[in-house]
Amino acid sequence: TKKYDYLVVGSGLFGAVFAHEATKAGKKCLVIDKRDHAGGNIFCKEMEGINVHWYGAHIFHTNDKDIWDYVNQFAEFNRYTNSPIANYKGELYNLPFNMNTFYRLWGTKTPQEAKQKIEEQIKGLNITEPKNLEEQALKLVGPDIYEKLIKHYTEKQWGRKATELPAFIIRRLPVRFTYDNNYFNDKYQGIPVGGYNKIVEGLLKDIEVQLNTDFISRREEFESIADKIVFTGKIDEYYGFRFGELEYRSLRFETEVVDTENYQGNAVVNYTDSEPAYTRIIEHKHFEFGTQPKTVITKEYPLTSEKGAEPYYPVNNDNNGAILKRYQELASAEKNVIFGGRLAEYRYYDMHQVIGSALVKAKRELS
Ligand code: FDA
């Protein structure tokens, strides 16, 4: 018999939840991660006493009571509500699009006035079958909102003209006829008090973890010590890129300490014009209502598939879909490897979704 029941590659939410459940069921796990910290992309780094969301802003939200209860075992959640501000040429608008946004744009005060205004904007455009993202957005919200809050932001994000982007990227654009700036519609929302690392620490408590350890370069050694492998890294890398590389969009973060108590008064401010080059500024202390004397901000720059960049968002197009399918065929034939999480499934997952998926796969495996 081998030393471990499961070798878990990756200490992100998927790996940590799986290892936690397996350990609870009496199995012996070794978790490895090539980074120098556990937690994957929800990792927070402490700076000036502030939990800095090191791989981008993370706001927990879910409609699923079981998942909410699950994370609340490990940390208490605060009442943080995501309500981003958009800055367009120095004008400030509330997001998501709601009565506050419409009032600022047009001076409309009642839902009826706002609806009428949007209808007027859309009428006369005569778009029936939108051919690209621009037409799709115009058809949904009209030219004012499109120009100030969608066009340039989206073009920055994708590094391409909105007329050259497929319409399906924007399926719907929620417009709300209430004065409600809450970005999410979910029943539960918040930030773990003390940061996301508390959740990761709770999940991995009493489990053996080896950091700075890459699976790929030592795979024979690791394959020989465990009965089964739970792989949460990139599926194309697991198979030596034999069918080609799956593409990702990435981000570059510029984080700085600012010697002021409150820099922008909100955790998230989007910059929706073509200038500046960054898409957002995150001020981390506001996620936890921090009162530290200094503040830490992060400017977020889009990065389109650059070598060596962190893989963040899968690029869902036909080519990547075809490559993925070939890897998935190999994966489904594996007897002793479980693939899970955003990189192994090449799928954008929110935190609650990745937890849900890990719980389902763990249950199936362990029962
Ligand atoms: P994750 O990437 O976290 O973990 C994989 C781990 O495997 C990493 O630690 C990696 O180092 C390790 N690894 C990979 N290959 C390896 C190898 N060969 N050997 C050893 N280790 C290896 N969700 C949400 O609910 N609300 C939000 O606000 C946000 N915001 C957000 C912003 C940005 C910019 C991104 C990119 C994502 C979000 N998310 C989010 C999504 C959230 O980050 C995501 O759901 C989870 O972090 C996914 O956890 P995984 O375990 O799947 O991957």
Automatic annotation (TrEMBL):
The keyword Flavoprotein applies. SUPFAM superfamilies: FAD-linked reductases, C-terminal domain (SSF54373), Nucleotide-binding domain (SSF51971). InterPro entries: UDP-GALP_mutase (IPR004379), UDP-GalPyranose_mutase_C (IPR015899). GO terms for molecular function: flavin adenine dinucleotide binding; UDP-galactopyranose mutase activity. Keywords: FAD, Flavoprotein, Isomerase. One of its GO terms (cellular component) is cytosol. This is UDP-galactopyranose mutase. The lineage of its organism: Bacteria, Pseudomonadati, Bacteroidota, Sphingobacteriia, Sphingobacteriales. The gene is glf.
